[in-house]
Amino acid sequence: MFDSINAMVNYAKTGGPLRMTVATAEDTDVLLAVKKAVQNGIIEPILIGDEYKIKSMMDSYAYNFNAEIIDAKSDGEACEKSIKMVSSGEAQMVMKGLVHTSTFLKAVLNKEWGLRQSELLSFISMFIFSGCLRKRPILMTDPAINIMPTIMEKKAIIENAVSVAHKLGIKTPNVALVCAVETVSPNMQATIDAAVLSKMNDRGQIKGCIVDGPLAFDNIISMNAAEHKGIKSPVAGNTDIIVVPYIEVGNVLYKTFNFFSVDFCAGVIAGARAPIVVTSRSDSHEVKYNSIVMASLLSKADPKIS
User: Fold this and answer.
1) What is the dihedral of CA 249, 250, 252, 254, to 10 degrees?
2) How far apart are CA 113 and CA 107, in angstroms?
3) For residue 263, what is the enclosing H or E element?
4) Cα torsion angle, 18, 143, 4, 170, sign
5) Are residues 265 and 278 in the same domain?
6) Number of domains the chain is built from
7) How far are the Cα atoms of 74, 178, 264, 278 from residue 216, in angstroms, in the given order?
8) How far apart are the C-alpha atoms of 143 and 280, rounded to whole Å?
9) Roughly how many angstroms between the first and final C-alpha of the chain, as a whole number?
10) What is the distance between the alpha carbons of residues 265 and 259, in angstroms, rounded to a whole number?
11) What are the CA-CA distances from residue 201 to residues 28, 162, 228, 232 (Å)?
12) Are strands 18-23 and 68-71 parallel, antiparallel or unpaired?
């Protein structure tokens, strides 16, 4: 299991750097993240976008790293060129730069040369917290792509996250379905979905993990809170993957985590044929760098890692 930032970085370095395209690279935080990843031997970057702006920014801010630069006349063209290079095997990873997620995902999902592999793409973030919370990583999904997923879409979201957890060395991840309460209520659809998904896991329809829910957030994070409420669950207080019911919950949690006492934050899209780095435009260069590390690690990781 990768239980520290250094362990993740060291593993991401193994076997040499991966070629990574950056769609619309003309962004200071993106270039800072790429620079750090290059200096640490994690990637060989291919910067795609407005060639003049990219070169001007690299000169202005003294970004002293080697990179191939490919000109693109529009955001759409930059995304297309970036995805096509990964799809053809010329690069192993792709990162979203200063471009709207919808434009980027349109290229990712292109039926002819896109990167879709599974039924559904989902965003998975990883956090390591400081303070009273454990140092072991917690994954959360999906705060960015799927707006109001159905039960079967939530099943796919769980399966994507479990696949990522396995590559991180978590053999049987504990999956918590977060809701406002920990009991099933006919007036709260999220609790009904959680109960159904938990039973699907019991019956072997969702494999490779332990799923429980509905669970309120305090039960997920704190064993004491779960015990105080009389909740008996192998997942409560020992969660590896938090699954949110819909995008608003995930978006708020992601940004809350990222602004309060987090040692490590990263995010990738799962369900594609190659690692995809997608971060918020407001994320710091450290979050963007961490996401490159995570994507490289997942590209190289063996699911059997212990």
Assistant:
1) 160
2) 8
3) strand 262-270
4) negative
5) no
6) 2
7) 44, 6, 23, 28
8) 11
9) 6
10) 10
11) 44, 12, 26, 17
12) unpaired
pTM (two decimals): 0.90
Per-residue pLDDT of 173-203, as tens digits, reads 999 999 999 999 999 999 999 999 999 999 9
CA distances for 254 relative to 143, 258, 260, 295, angstroms:
7, 6, 10, 18
Does 205 lie in the same domain as 156? Answer: yes
C-beta of residue 266 within 8 angstroms of C-beta of residue 283: no
Give the pLDDT mean for 75-91: 97
Q: How many CB atoms lie within 10 A of CB 224?
A: 11
What residue spans of the chain are helical by DSSP H?
5-13, 28-39, 51-60, 75-87, 101-108, 151-167, 189-202, 217-221, 223-228, 247-259, 285-300
For residue 156, the domain's CATH number is 3.40.718.10
Q: Are residues 124 and 250 in the same domain?
A: yes
Structure tokens at 151: 């039960």
Placement of tokens 């792509």 in the chain: 145
> What is the C-alpha separation between 266 and 233, in angstroms, rounded?
28
Q: Which residue in this structure is represented by tokens 């994954």?
A: 139
CA atoms within 13 A on the CB side of 257: 26
- pLDDT per residue as tens digits for the range 237-282: 899 999 999 999 999 999 888 777 678 899 999 999 999 999 887 7
Q: Is 232 exposed, middle or buried (0-12, 13-18, 19+ CB in 10 A)?
A: exposed
Pair (72, 181) in one structural domain? no
Residue with tokens 């200096």: 39
